[in-house]
Amino acid sequence: MFGKSNPFLSIFQKKLYFCSRFMFYVIKRPIFVAFIYLLLTACVDKPQPVTTPWGTEVGSVDDTASVQDGVYSMEDIVSNGEMIVLTISGPDTYYDYHGHGLGVQYMMCEDFARSKGVSVRVELCRDTLEMVSKLRKGIGDLVAVRIPKQKYRDLRYCGSVNAGGNAQWAVAKGNASLAKALDSWYRKDMESKTEDRENYILSVASVRRRVYSPVLDSKRGIMSSYDNLLRKYAPISGLDWRLLAAQCYQESCYDSQAVSWAGAMGLMQIMPTTAKRYGVAKENLFNPEINISTGVRIMRSMMSSFSDITSYDERINFALAAYNAGPGHIRDAMALAKKEGRRSDRWDVVAEYVLLLSEPEYYQDPVVRHGFMRGKETVGYVASIRRRWGR
Asked: Bridge-partner residues for 49, per DSSP?
């Protein structure tokens, strides 16, 4: 059927015939196969190493070995512009505070990264075992939790060290350049200085205000010189303008130029990144009308995010708490209450768990997704606004 003399073969059949004959010939002759392989490999151009501005060669086998092993040197980190920090949630290690990372160990990492001109990305882990596992896999560059030096002998210890000298930060064993950079940068007095800076951040003094503006005359219904704007925009959120006035006082004492340590701005202390999501430029946040209208829109969003709270009055408490601490932490407290068989739609109950989220037993619970929080401030925030509102 497939003979050459058959005049009825289609073009496809002819091609198939010749291919099958060629493969038969090749299989029977291994020397011919070897010759074809050598011919093809000789025609392939080998990549030539290229010298980078800092002197290392890209394109050679040796250059890619560190990346394949999951080790990113100090030079790689500077080139990428980012250092990945592995840590756990806790008051000394890392926690989210008004959308910004705090914790002495994290803050020192941030200082180190800033000195090298790179940013920090946090990979939050459950425990030391997970941190070490991710470091070995190259998922992170630095374990920013002091771990016992004798526990993991395949790591290189460097940077922040405890008083006894037996626990320290760690990097991958082969990452000598990052370890050297951290050891050269670290000083023993950094811990206490960073702790002092954190305490200042957490104090009222960290919000720069030009004037202290008290409530003018709450009995006569006059809260501030911005009452007309609060009345104008309150309907957007469906909230009483007096509640928003009390919140505005709590945030900035009615100082339109107030700035927090984290960069929150104006009457309602709005972060520029948050304002951007609402289409508001940073330079406009000192404008009282724009700031108030944006703050009201944020409160409307907070109210909507807790629409599962059927009681309107209770929902106000949850929205205020979320404005202060972020919805994630409040949802964590609700999950804890629900887990223990208590009402997760009652603020007086959930507030208890907001306070408990500062204790390891609770912020390390599997139902908690956002870790440690300083709940005392948030509970006080809601109580102060409700008291000033008078309802």
From this structure: none
Please work out, in degrees rounded to the nearest 5, the angle formed at the alpha carbon of residue 172 by the alpha carbons of 169 and 178: 70
Task: State the pTM of this model.
Answer: 0.73
The Cα 108–Cα 160 span in angstroms is 8
For the CA atoms of 171, 172, 178, 184, the dihedral, rounded to the nearest 10 degrees, stands at 50
What gap in Å lies between CA 166 and CA 307, rounded to an integer?
50
The rounded distance, in Å, linking the Cα atoms of 337 and 315 is 16
The DSSP-derived string for 59-121 is SSHHHHHHHHTT---HHHHHHHTEEEEEEE-BTTTBEEETTEEE-HHHHHHHHHHHHTT-EEE
State the CB neighbour count (10 A cutoff) for residue 92.
16
For the chain, the residue count is 391
* Residues β-bridged to residue 86: 123, 143
What type of residue sits at position 197?
A: R
Q: Which residue has the tokens 């392939």?
A: 44
Statement: residue 196 has pLDDT above 80: yes
Tokens 């500077």, located at residue: 78
Residue ranges with strand state E in the chain: 50-51, 57-58, 82-88, 95-97, 100-102, 119-125, 142-148, 155-161, 167-172
DSSP track, 110-153: HHHHHHTT-EEEEEEESSHHHHHHHHHTTS-SEEEEEEETTT-T
Residue 288 and residue 143: Cα distance in Å, rounded? Answer: 44
As given in the structure block, the two tokens for residue 340 are 């223990």
Residue with tokens 């500062």: 358
29 band by pLDDT with thresholds 50, 70 and 90: low
Closest Cα partner for 351 from 369, 325, 388?
325
44-66 residue pLDDT tens? 444 444 333 333 333 333 333 33
292 touches 229 (CB < 8 A): yes
**What are the pLDDT digits (tens) for 291-316?**
999 999 999 999 999 999 999 999 99
* Six-digit token string for 125: 């882990």
| Number of Cβ within a 10 Å radius of residue 88 | 24
How far apart, in whole angstroms, are the C-alpha atoms of residue 141 and residue 34? Answer: 45
Whether the per-residue pLDDT at 36 is higher than 80: the answer is no
**First-to-final CA distance of the chain:** 97
DSSP one-letter code for 206? G
Query: DSSP character for 48?
Result: P
